[in-house]
Every structure is written in C-alpha cells, then in structure tokens.
Specification:
The chain is an alpha+beta fold. The chain contains seven helices and 24 strands. The radius of gyration is 37 Å and the shape is elongated.
C-alpha cells in the first residue's frame, strides 16, 4: 500500500517538473521571438538588401499604357538609424519612365510601423509627400499629396507624356496654370481589401492649340476638379465640373463656359454644358462621348443670340442686323476629325422688331434672278434691303448628303420706309451648295484618307 502511494507521488512530481519545464521553455521561446522581432529593424541596417523590381503592367492598361514606355518600378534601399528613434530609409530607382529619389523616416513598434515619405522625380520639381502606418498586409493606411505647383508645356514630365499622345493638336499646344493632388487609402481587418481615393485640381489654366485643320483655339482660366474612388478592383470616376472664363475658336468667343461631366462604364456623359455667346446663351444636354472613337452627337440650343453676328457667318449676307435669335443646331463629331452641322433652325423673337441693312445685295439678287424674278422687281428690292425693319426672321439650314447640295433658306417679313412711303416686305430666299460654302463657321477638321495614313 505504501509502495503504491510512493509511486503515485513520484508520478505527480514528475508531471509537475515536465509542466514547469514546458512553461519555462515557452517563456524563453517567447522572449527569443520578441527579441528577434525587435532586433529585425536593427539587423536591416547591417544586412545588404538587393535591388527590388516590381512589374506594374497589370495596373497600367488601355490609353494609360501608351503614355509610358517602361512599366516597371525599381527600388535600391539604404537603411540607417535615425534620431531620436526609428530609421531613415533612402531609396533610389526608376518609376515608369522617370528616375526618382525618396527618403522616409520609419518608426517600428512591437507589431506596428509608421512613418513619413518624400519622393521627388530627378531633374524636376515634382514632389510627393506622404505619411503611413500599418501592422500588416491587411491593416494599413496612407495619406499623400502633391502640393499646388505651376505647370506648363516646358515641364519635362508633361512634355514626355504629351509626346506619346500621338495627337496632331498637341504639336502646337501651349499652356500654363497650377496643379495639385491629394490621395488616401487604407485596408482594415473589418474590410480586408484595399480602398483608396484621389482628388486633384487644375486652376487658372491658359491654353492655346491649333486643330489639324488649322483653326486656332484659346482657353482662358480653366478650372477643373477631378477624382477617383476605388475599392479592390472596382473604380468610380468622380463627376467633373470644368469652368473657363472664355474659349475662343474660329472667331467665336464663348465666355463663362461650363460643363457637368459624368463617367459611365464605357463613355463620358456631358449632362449639361453652356456658355455666353454672341450676346446670348448656348446650352447643350446629354452628350455621350466615347473616348476610344471620339465620336459624339448632340444639339446646341441657342437663346437670345445676336442676329447680326449670325448673319455675318452666312456667305450670301453682307450687312448689319439687330435683334435676337433662338433655335437649335444639331451636330455630330466623327472620330474626332469630322464635324458635321446638321439641320439648323433659328428664328427671331416673336413680337419683337429688328433692323437689317444689306450693304451688298448682289448675292441675294443673283439668287432671285435664277428664280425668275424680273429685273424691275430686283431693282426695287435692292433699295428695300438697304434699310428695313423686320418682325419675322427665320434661318433654316438643311444639310445635304455628305454636306453637298445643302440648302439655306432665309425668310424675312417686315417693312421698309423711304420718305413717307412704307412698303411691306415678304422675302423667301433659298441658297444651294456645299454647307462649308454657305456657312462660314471656320471650324475645319482635317479628314484623313487611307493614302494619308499610309504616308
């Protein structure tokens, strides 16, 4: 009996020794692991780190891929102790097509790291500032910004990007203004996928360019905010609301120009755009623009534009006029090269009277002669057109196939007074020909043929 009790006591004592030994070993192991984790940052200052290379081609696709030749990033790290704590990291390498230099101050805790970063593109004044923190691949956050800075065509980074656009309009493009960018991102245990957003802006941008057809275009004081929100592989482009003090093209001046632009899955939707022009207002709604094909169509609505400025664009009218016109002008832009003006209709304000003085009535009289109007009537009409008051003015352009055989119809109703004699005027004139000969818009877009492309 005593022997069994002694054996039992020895067994319990042995188990207790084993348990104490295991606990001691576990504590020592934890201390060793903790010491190793804490020493890793210090080891980094003594262990050489080979150059790292990252392939970014999976994230650079479509048109963006055409803007850069190199689609990789390289990092050559140098880590040194910092003061009063933490480490100072210096990196050099290549980011896409540009060489860069970066410095960071990093502080390590038991399971957390945080710090700040400054990255600059060598040979430029482009500078990115950022701060970050994290505990692992599924728990991190960052904030970054490019502070407002001046930009121009002479900027080496922008010049490199523009040279790869392959657009004829960038050849004579000149611009100056300011640019800024802010970005932030995070990943959390509750949402273990990356989420980030970026917001940027262009302010007081003045630009000038020449279209392939030789038409000069000038933009004054353009302001634009843009942005993107992303989570995992999904991205949403933020609505854009560009504004400009003026846009000048082919003798037209659009002042206080604005637009509301939203990105859809495959195109951009201009929900509304407008400007002051020719003493009145122009408005456009629901314009879909395919960025791949650069084809779009919409209708411009005119309200209260000056009749004299409209008539000055008609090749057969040489004179002056007062009054206001309203109406619509549908158009279609094909492949970013061909601008087609479709059937246009403009009319004077009902109930209002305007004045018209035709300085050279010959084109009108020649047209009437072809229509069989006798010479005597044409002579009297020449005197009437020199000074008349109208209460109805209608201008209608019917575009023919391909622009040829288009018809411009002008209707004028009113009266002309010479001395004490007042005569009624009811004039309907129709001109035929190529739309570009009838209407001088001055908006010329070069049409590329197959032979031109081969050249």
């Amino acid at each position: 009996m005593e022997t069994d009790e002694k054996k039992s006591g020895k067994s319990v004592s042995w188990k207790r020794r084993i348990l104490r030994w295991l606990l001691t070993a576990a504590v020592v192991l934890l201390l060793v692991l903790a010491a190793f984790v804490l020493s890793v940052p210090y080891l980094l200052t003594h262990v050489p780190i080979p150059e790292l290379e990252f392939d970014l081609s999976a994230h650079i696709k479509g048109k963006l891929a055409e803007l850069v030749e190199n689609k990789k990033a390289t990092v050559d790290l140098e880590i040194r102790r910092g003061n009063p704590d933490g480490f100072r990291v210096r990196a050099r390498g290549r980011l896409l097509d540009w060489r860069y230099t970066a410095t960071a101050n990093v502080r390590f805790g038991f399971i957390r790291a945080d710090g700040d970063l400054r990255l600059s593109l060598d040979g430029t004044d482009w500078m990115l500032y950022a701060d970050f923190s994290g505990t692992g691949a599924k728990d991190w956050r960052f904030n970054a910004n490019v502070k407002e800075r001046e930009i121009s065509r002479d900027d080496p980074v922008l010049a490199s990007v523009l040279s790869r656009l392959g657009s004829p309009m960038t050849k004579d493009l000149a611009f100056s203004g300011s640019f800024s960018l802010d970005a932030e991102g995070s990943c959390t245990p509750k949402r273990p996928v990356p989420a980030w957003s970026a917001r940027g802006g262009v302010k007081n941008l003045d630009a000038s360019l020449v279209t392939p057809g030789g038409t000069p275009v000038e933009i004054s004081a353009l302001r634009l905010r843009f942005g993107v929100d992303a989570i995992a592989d999904h991205r949403d482009i933020a609505p854009m609301f560009p504004r400009a003090d003026s846009v000048t093209a082919a003798g037209f001046v659009l002042s206080n120009a604005f637009a509301s632009v939203r990105a859809t899955e495959r195109s951009y939707l201009v929900t509304e755009a407008g400007a002051d022009c020719c003493g009145g207002e122009l408005r456009l709604y629901s314009l879909f623009l395919d960025p791949e094909k650069l084809s779009a169509g919409a209708t411009v609505f005119a309200d209260g534009i000056d009749a004299g400025q409209v008539l000055s664009r008609l090749a057969y009218f040489r004179g002056q006029a007062s009054g206001r016109l309203h109406g619509k002008m549908p158009f279609f832009l094909k492949d970013g090269r061909e601008l087609h003006i479709k059937n246009t209709y403009l009319f004077s304000t009902p109930g209002e009277t305007g004045k018209m003085r035709i300085d050279d009535p010959k084109p009108i009289l020649d047209n009437l002669e072809l229509g069989g109007v006798p010479e005597a009537e044409r002579g009297n009409l020449a005197k009437v057109l020199a000074d008349l008051d109208y209460n109805v003015l209608k201008i209608e352009l019917a575009r023919g196939e391909g622009g040829e055989d288009s018809t411009l119809s002008v209707q004028i109703e009113g009266s002309a007074t010479r001395g004490s004699t007042t005569v009624p005027v009811n004039l309907n004139i129709a001109f035929h020909g190529d739309v570009d000969e009838i209407v001088n818009l001055g908006l010329k877009f070069k049409r590329h043929t197959g032979k031109e492309k081969q050249k």
